Amino acid sequence: MDIFYKKLKVSQDEFLFQFQSHPNYPSVLSFSDTLTFLGFKNEVYEIEKEFWLELPQKFITIYENKYTIVEGLDDNYLVSNDKVEKISTDKLYNDSENIVLLFDDNEENEYSTDRLTINNKWFIRFLMSLIIGYSFFTHSHVLFVFNIFSIFGLYVSLELFKTKFGRKSAVINSICTGSGKVSETNNSCTKIFKSDKINFIGLKLSDFSLVYFFGLLFVGLFIRENYFILKYLSFLSGIVICYSLYIQLFIEKTFCKICLLIIVTLLCQMIVSIFFINIIVSVDVLFISVFSFLVIFSLVAYINSILDEKEKNHILNVKNIRFKKNYSIFKRELQEKKYNFHIKNDEFRFGSKDSRLNISLITNPYCGYCAEIYKIIRKIIKRYPDISLQLRFSYLPINADHNLTLLITIFRNIYTKKGADFFLEAIEFWHDRNDIEIFLNEYSQFTLETEMDGIIDLAEENISFGLTYTPQILINNYLFPVLYERNDIFYFLDNLIEDEDILNECN
Asked: 3-103: what CATH class?
């Protein structure tokens, strides 16, 4: 994972998906909106370099054409994008644009770096160590060295395979771009990979290196009397070496560092294989080895086809979401249906009562689908405290049983006596347990009778407009479009706050 996302403590996949699916991608606006969606309060400014000394210690700018986290040191700066560098003030000023994003760290970010990714890295390291240890203690020294080169070749091939499907590899990037300013898409490695005309059931030459090193490692570890297989395959790899060098020298006339690294690995294996002795040809070993390579080839081809299909679906999904996030389309759908609510009271109202943007949620305690909505409400209240938000419970005494009346009573008492946060905790507690006895045991002190007229007035108005289904969301009396997921509201809140057409329709 890139250092940039580690520093932000966000999932790289989630960030890139939200960023790339923004209608204005790859603008600074889309980057800022992505930070906002992920829970980071941020502001974008265009500031001349002479005023940068007055900036906070940590900020984001575009350094060497990449979004970069900049942290001030005593006399220098620490910049973090694909890697971490300590640079001088002059270098930062010369290689950066005047765009600055000021942001607040979000320690409670729900899109934080997935701990499973870290665990996977340690698992791979443990597996590699286990293989090396097994080879060292169970094989000859010559074969052990040969297997080490197979492991190294397999690791590089896996990194290449990963980059084929849009995943970044710090190893590949650092080797290909080095410390210069060569971009990831405009370096010799990328040029050579694109010139590769081999395509057998979707597999390129770099994919065959994965099959080759995986097969060599399997044979070298688990098949006895394997010297003749490893030796002959090592010398046959000379054909691939010649082909690769021909492409680099005579076709593209540039060298690919990764290709040269693999070539050196193959040459080292050829040299090591010279020291293999007792070269006994065995038909059984030959058959098992060929079968193993065929299985590995089929496995790589199958995984390649799955990942290729997944990548196509991802690209299509990004395009669809980009269309979906278009505010003008959302606004058009939003304004399709409007309800002229007239009753104004402060029952279960959150945020700023004077806000020109009011979100109404029609709900009831027995609505299982409403549980997700309350989590959305908490996020809105936390991120946008200036928005007005009100719950309109569908509660009429004539239609309510004793338990429903008891629940609404407890909710109102909690809201009036303990406030919004405690109330939302209580309502989430109810939906998590969905057991009236457990709920009463937890909140028995809030069962005293309370004034219900305001709640009933809101419910009667809901019914008068035919709003009986729950949950339903209204934004300044406009019904939230059914074409959108309720969580999609976060894509548009910033636009809604500034849209005078919508704000003028304030309830």
From this structure: alpha beta
